[in-house]
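Try this one yourself first.
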């Protein structure tokens, strides 16, 4: 016996599966003609795509970005790999061309040390402030003035 509504649930499940598959394939949205014929080289290119920032989208890798510049950068990376460049050479080429900003995870060096160390310094300063405030004696009530003491004694009688 068929349960009512079962086919409707099945249709919804199928639609959800198709939608999920489409979303997963968005990362591979390049034209197939752009991809490298050698699967190992294409895998290297895909790994490199995730290391480079889309300078249009800022915090997205060129693998995730749909911007035209990201597509151009993917073509450049694939071209470099097709010409036999190593991953380090491809990285150096893009850094020379776009600066360290192109790297999603730039290395720590004297030029950007303040950017890496500032959050740590802020946390340390905040912790030191909280620690010193906790160690300081609690401010109690101020002593009564002589006039207030006389008034208190009168009230206590």
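Now uncover the answer:
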């Amino acid at each position: 016996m068929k349960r009512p509504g079962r086919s409707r649930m099945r249709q919804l499940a199928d639609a959800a599966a198709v939608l999920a598959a489409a979303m997963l394939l968005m990362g591979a949205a390049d034209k197939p003609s752009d991809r490298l014929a050698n699967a190992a080289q294409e895998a290297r290119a895909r790994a490199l795509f995730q290391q480079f920032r889309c300078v249009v989208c800022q915090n997205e890798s060129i693998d995730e970005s749909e911007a035209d510049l990201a597509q151009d950068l993917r073509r450049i990376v694939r071209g470099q790999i097709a010409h036999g460049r190593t991953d380090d050479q491809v990285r150096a080429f893009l850094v020379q061309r776009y600066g360290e900003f192109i790297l999603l995870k730039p290395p720590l060096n004297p030029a950007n040390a303040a950017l890496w160390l500032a959050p740590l310094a802020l946390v340390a300063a905040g912790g030191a402030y909280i620690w010193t405030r906790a160690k300081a004696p609690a401010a109690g009530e101020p002593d009564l003035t002589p006039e207030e003491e006389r008034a208190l004694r009168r009230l206590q009688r």
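Discussion: The domain at 34-131 is CATH 1.10.8.640 (Helicase, Ruva Protein; domain 3). Helices lie at 6-25, 39-49, 68-82, 87-98, 113-135, 146-156.
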